[in-house]
Amino acid sequence: MPNWGGGAKCGACEKTVYHAEEIQCNGRSFHKSCFLCMACRKALDSTTVAAHESEIYCKTCYGRKYGPKGVGFGQGAGCLSTDTGDHLGLNLQQGSPKPARPSTPTNASKFAKKMVDVDKCPRCGKSVYAAEKIMGGGKPWHKTCFRCAICGKSLESTNVTDKDGELYCK
């Protein structure tokens, strides 16, 4: 029986994708709103997508998951040569070779705490990562949570006001 007026199925949510909202990647169709990195949920486009079989990733997450492993690989943009590693709890002096393994055992709970210490969205309580962060009322918000508490309208820096930790449109 013919499929009258339908479209392809979305590679992420399996619902029908109509032509006006379709993004094609690796022979599959996606809704614009479903075309997200499978690891960090960052919105993708034709310049930022990296496909692996039936999975789609941003280039950073793809590199971390499928790229070369070892020192200096899969770490995103890297760091400046003046970076001493202090933010990771390492005490490395400039000019000295960096050891492959610390000579003394690291405090695992201290290291884990720093790696997990991510801002939380006041609206949904979930972690807010840099790619999706919007600041409002001095707090980090997800783009999707950055809405008026009364009418639900999306907010921008020009039409937002805050009171008692909630966001409202002006």
Automatic annotation (TrEMBL):
Task: State the InterPro entries in the record.
Answer: Znf_LIM (IPR001781)
Describe the location of the LIM zinc-binding domain by residue ranges: 8-68, 119-170
Keyword annotations from UniProtKB, A to Z: LIM domain, Metal-binding, Nucleus, Repeat, Zinc
What's the chief localization of this chain? Answer: nucleus
Q: Name one GO biological process term.
A: cardiac muscle contraction
Q: Which GO terms describe its molecular function?
A: actinin binding; metal ion binding; structural constituent of muscle
SUPFAM superfamilies (alphabetical): Glucocorticoid receptor-like (DNA-binding domain)
The record's listing under SMART domains reads: LIM
Q: Where in the cell is it found?
A: Nucleus
Q: Which GO terms describe its cellular component?
A: nucleus; Z disc
Provide the protein name: CSRP3 protein
State the taxonomy lineage.
Eukaryota, Metazoa, Chordata, Craniata, Vertebrata
